[in-house]
Structures are given as C-alpha cells and as structure tokens.
Amino acid sequence: QVQLVESGGGLVQDGGSLRLSCAASGRTVSSAVMGWFRQVPGKEREFVAGITYNGGRTNYADSVKGRFTISRDNAKNTVSLQMNSLKPEDTAVYYCAAAATARITIVTSEKAYNSWGQGTQVTVSS
Hints:
The chain is mainly beta. Helices cover 0% and strands 48% of the residues. The chain has strands spanning 3-7, 10-13, 18-25, 33-39, 46-51, 58-60, 68-73, 78-83, 92-99, 115-116, 120-125.
C-alpha cells in the first residue's frame, strides 16, 4: 500500500504562486501515473493534472493549462505541482493520487486512482 502525503498548500494572493509536493512511501510510485485533483465544498473532486510514469507526457485541465506544471522525481518518489498566476477560483483542497494500474494513459477520472493523500488546502485571496 502506498502512502501519499501532500505539502505546500497555504494562503496566497491573486496572481501569486505556490508549489505543492507529494511524497510517496511504502511502495514506489515510479511505475504509476500520478495525478493532482482538487475539491471545493459541495462539488465533486476534479482532475487538475496528470503525468505518466516516466514523466514523458502530461495532461492538464483546461482551467489550469499554461499556469500549472506537474513534474515528478522517481528517484525521490515525489510528484510536484507548480501553480503560477493563481486565481481565487483555484481555491480548493488539493489531493495527490496514484493510479497503480496505469503507466502511460493519464486517466482523468478519480475512479482510476487507487491511492490518495489527505489533501492540502490552497486559498487564493482576491
């Protein structure tokens, strides 16, 4: 079983930047697609970004394209999400997730991801 722990969330002003990190332990995630999701109260969790097992391909939600960048370091068993030009509508709890059965297909449905972190709050003030 993989344990995922997110860090880096916080309060930032409109237009600011944050970098989220996700550290995996228990098992390596080097062969898994990794994703970031976010959720606001009363809404479903939504896909934000994903990356293939070797970092060769990435995929982003339209709402974050050009502003967010996902990356991974398999040697350190970590995944990061660099968030620039943040907007108040980016406010949410952000979750890191691993899809152990996927390597090269970045699935955007949360059902494909079998390991989740506890989430980290990102708040963007206007």
